[in-house]
User: What shape does this take?
Amino acid sequence: MDDSPKSLENNQEIKVEEIMQVPSVEMSFDSIDEAYDYYRKYGKQLGFPVRKRTSRKGDDGNTKYITISCGRAGKFKSKSSISLKSHPSVKTDCKVLIRLGKSLDGKWKINSTKLEHNHGLSPRKSRYFSANSELSSSIKRRLELNDVARIGLNKSYNSIVVEAQGYDNVPFLEKGAQNHIEKIRRLRLKESDATAVQTYFLDMQDKIASFFYAIDINEKGKLRNFFWAYARSRAAYQEFGDVFTFDTTYLTNKYEMPSAPFVGVNHHVQSILLGCGLISSEDIETFVWLFKSWLTCMSGNAPSGINTDQDRAMKNAIEIVFPNTRHRWCLWHILKKIPEKLKGYTEYESISMTLLNTIYDSLSQVEFEERWDEMIKQYKLHENDG
Assistant: This one.
């Protein structure tokens, strides 16, 4: 087998993008996916991210119009009354977009375009945009085989970089390769293990009618995610289900599948388990499946509040499944970042103490905001985006 750069190029595992045509109303595509792929490559060449923004359906229920925009479209809207963000927003209300409509011949034609960005472009950084992270099926297979052969991911990735003659020619980052391998490892449940899990759940349900479980199977028939809740968990939720904490920071099994417990608090201020899942991935699709399974278990009764860490996929899934539930960030996760954000200040110790006093000694939202503003002014933290 020829593993030279030329061979890789011929196999289209790693390829150099062709010069893309500027969007115009003369252009048409066979499908929405083809149009999106074109605009993604165009954005990658110029140095801006893209995303599908809006779509509109006709009377027959089929999509008739779609807008694909610059990834920096829209304005940042904080849902908190406190002027504290984990990261500065990348949104600049950029108006660049293409609008497409489906014509009578079935083609998707560009109806209008806007081309002027209100922000700088970064062609050399395009490969870092999530939409441009591409792992072809052959690359995935190669990474998987190397992993089974116990070849380190770093060596696998570096060999691909060498063959491509540089990092800039590789259409994905090492983190993307790592995420793929971690997901594959979690899906390597032995058939006997998957059968044992299903047998156990069926046995529990036979003994206790109110025992609940849900299993998610992938397209190859392999167990991917599962959720369960005991009768006492379902009963406890009826009394103490107004707020719960959801966390996936625990890896407590040989498959390294994140444990995902739903934890509430009873009238004795004791933690109570309101259900638990083991998941193969921490993406939006998986969290949506898990939350929907939990909601079905609890007879469709959504909680008033959910506390989580600052995971974006988790946040998006909560907005989809629990649109009317108040989502708050876990204080422990926020405070854990204090050294990272403030350690560089000469008055770090004093700032840290003042911040903790502001958080724990404020008895109302108004008092907290007043003390927060005083702290910002006292230590001149106006320019800190942490």
